[in-house]
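Hello,

Our lab assistant flagged a job as stuck in the queue for most of the afternoon. It eventually completed. Since we weren't sure the result was trustworthy after the delay, we are filing this so someone can double-check. Below is the sequence as submitted and the structure that was eventually returned. Let us know if re-running is recommended.
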Amino acid sequence: MLAKFDEMAIRLARSVIAGLAAMVALTCAIASPASAQADKMTPIATPAQPTAIALGTGPLPGATVGESWHSQYGSVFARNVTVATLTPFLPDPAKATGAAVIVTPGGGFRTLSMENEGWQVAQALADRGVAAFVLKYRLVQTPADMAGFEASMREMFSGTAARPPAPQDSAVALAPQIADARAAFALVRTRAKEWHVDPDRIGMIGFSAGAMLTMATTLYGDDAKPAFIADIYGPLAPVTVPADAPPLFIALAADDPLFGNSGYGLIDSWRAAKHPVEFHLYEQGGHGFGMYKKETTSTGWFDAYVRWLGMHGYLKPKG
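-- returned structure --
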């Protein structure tokens, strides 16, 4: 059994490393001078986050650069997050179903798409009676200024930069982020009565890098134990599925430049283990569609996800 989990760790670590490289490379391409002006990353003041709760996992070890924010695509992104927080989006108590979701935005572990893959998702869930909590997890450090950030990313993938040795498993590679996710689950369970949440009905949804964190939390998060999970345009490498694996929802566009042509081993793994899995493969949508309103059918992923939640009984009180 240990050998199987070692193999699973190596596979997931490879997904993390390959996915991270591809996501950051894509970010650099988007930020190139040839991009439209509206697509440029523009520094902005840190938005007010009055309901954000510090998770107590401590500052990121070795961090020297403070948190900063920028806008792109009409949305907002956080960078250099050193202190993890959780922001609640609570439904009207009269319509609360008791279910809850930890929402983990993506961004290659270098940035977080806080609006398109975080706040908007959480608010849409709360509108349907599901409590949602946006996890702003700690990130890999990047240069403080935007020009330096872009330059560092180009250098990283120029072939000339020194490469650190690959981590042996994702439990090591994502240790700070997994700790943040575990703390998020612990906080929601501690305040479950106050927030009208059933501690046994807390799930997790992640986007891109956030999907990697969702899967890593499911496999290595010890006491987190999400009741259901969703992987939105994350890597689909095969894993060894735990005996207590939760139901899994997956959405991906076939033209996703990062993970659209890497196989569907994760679905096969879940099915082989006889655990529930639902997979939506959209013809078009690219990567990072989130809550953006596009003319592709990928825009319908959230409605499909809500129907899936309803099918599993999470849109009404238990019992």
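-- support follow-up --
The delay was a queue issue, not a problem with the job. The result is valid. The two ends are 36 Å apart (CA to CA). Residues 1-14, 24-36 have pLDDT under 50 and may be disordered.
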